[in-house]
Amino acid sequence: MTTFHYFAYGSNLLPHRLQRRCESARLVGVAEVRDYSLDFSKRSNDRSGKATIFKQNNAKVIGAIFEIKKTEQSTLDGHESLGSGYERDDNFEVMLTQAQQAVQCSTYIAPHEHRDYCLDPYDWYLGLVIAGARLHAFPEKSITRLKNQTFTPDPRLARQSRHEAIGILSEAGYPLKNILNDK
Hints:
Blueprint: E1 3-8, H1 15-21, E2 26-43, E3 49-69, H2 73-79, E4 87-96, E5 101-109, H3 123-135, H4 140-147, H5 160-171, H6 176-181
Antiparallel strand pairs: 1-3, 2-3, 2-4, 4-5
Helix pairs in contact: 3-4, 3-5
């Protein structure tokens, strides 16, 4: 196989972000996984919370499936801190919503030892997630839940990842100030 399917549910939902990391990434469609929930408890090196999913009965996570060249998987692993923040599950089954078809994907999940429930995402990170949800026309209930997520303004205004995210959001038509304040 020369490609793999990737289930994105966090900042990589926004194709503009993912394609900066994996140029070949092509949207397959919106998908969901049942009996999982999403939160921002993955402890990041920058001391903020990043998105992760975890098992929870009667819950649902909506995300997007992308097809990516297998040669770019190690690049994605690096961005996702494989082995030191997230673990990759290559047999993660999600349901492609429009086709109602099960698809085997790779996705990244933070193990318990890399989670901290007292963290909030930085503003720019949450902005990427909300912009991705908006772009893929997630149900308004899901978007409202994201918009109600508490966040922290990044205290390091010169942080490179912050500048990159703000640029990506603007390029995608979702300026950070607008995406966070649009109730």
